[in-house]
Amino acid sequence: MKRIPAMLTRRVTHRFSEGTQNRFFCTMLARENQHELAVAARKFGNLMIFGCWWWLNNPSLVEEITRMRVELLGTTFIPQHSDARVLEQLVYKWEHSRAIIGKVLADQFESLARSGRRISGKDISRDVNAIFSGNVDPDVEKEAFGAGAVEVLTKDGSVVYATLTDGDFFGEIALVLNQTRTACVRTVSYCDLYRLDKEMFDRVLAHYPNIAAQIEAKAKERNKEW
After folding, report:
1. What are phi and psi of 78, to 5 degrees?
2. Among 107, 45, 104, 53, which Cα is nearest to 76's?
3. What stretch of H or E contains 140?
4. Any residues with CB less than 8 A from the CB of 16 and at least 6 apart, and which?
5. Reduced to 3 states, what is the DSSP secondary structure of residue 55?
6. How are the residues of the chain apportioned to helix, strand and coil, as percentages rounded to the nearest 5?
7. Could you write out the DSSP letters of every residue in 99-116?
8. How far is it, in rounded angstroms, from Cα 7 to Cα 5?
9. What's the mean pLDDT in 146-170?
10. Residues 31-78: pLDDT tens digits?
11. Are 126 and 167 in contact (CB under 8 A)?
């Protein structure tokens, strides 16, 4: 797998067609290159574009570029990347980026629902998983995108109610039943966790009553057990 330096798309596009045995990660620093790069990624399956680097890494441009990529590429790109060496900087970048990416995905599902398409929970889970962890080669995914696991415990940590893994969720009791949390969660390995605040949670579920009913049922079930 090769990683090429950022440069003008017209000077590098021909490299992506040399053979599918060569895989490319590519990002570009200039706003004016983003559309051409996305078109190239649509043409060549061996090109994976990623991230919003440096001066592109601000909320308005992250949203603009992410929307364009979703419209052209679906979930076949890596939405964000940071080469930050300082933890606080990495956390800051991800805090604003994940909210924007979540908003873009929610808007896309809303648009599909308005067009008459039925959206299931499986559809949402599939696309969220694809864009955050399923859009890279398996050998890269094993190294960089471990799903991890968490334990759900009593508040004093003496009893483990359950172990949750890839695709599970937690925190729904507080959101659905409007009450304080009934348990604590502790990671047992490195995890990729994605968060929906209550406003976004309510916004998405308002359009998908079937999913809302499933989550409410799970919240009530867990509230009795936990």
Report:
1. -100, 115
2. 45
3. helix 138-144
4. 24, 40, 43, 44, 46, 47
5. helix
6. 55, 10, 35
7. HHHHHHHHHHHHHHHHTT
8. 6
9. 82
10. 888 998 899 888 887 888 888 877 788 889 989 999 999 999 988 888
11. no
Residues written for the chain: 226
Domain boundaries, the chain: 2-144, 150-225
- Predicted model pTM: 0.54
Token pair of 38 as six digits: 């996305």
Give the Cβ contact number of residue 72 at 10 Å.
15
In the predicted model, what is the mean pLDDT of residues 202-211?
A: 81
Residue 68's pLDDT is: 95
Most confident of 108-117, 125-134, 166-175: 108-117
DSSP 4: P
Classify domain 150-225 at the CATH topology level. Answer: Jelly Rolls (2.60.120)
Q: Which two tokens stand for residue 29?
A: 């620093």
Return the pLDDT at 15: 63
Level-2 CATH architecture, domain 2-144: Alpha-Beta Barrel (3.20)
> pLDDT confidence of 160, banded at 50, 70, 90?
very high
Say if CB 184 and CB 153 are below 8 A apart.
Answer: yes
Asked if 53 and 83 touch (Cβ cutoff 8 Å), the reply is: yes
Closest among 136, 133, 123, 138 to 190, alpha carbons compared:
133
The band of 6, judged by pLDDT with boundaries at 50, 70 and 90, is very low
CA dihedral 140, 38, 119, 95 (to 10 degrees): 70
Q: Residue 226, Cα to own-chain centre: how many angstroms?
A: 28
Shortest CA distance to 51 belongs to which of 73, 69, 32? Answer: 69
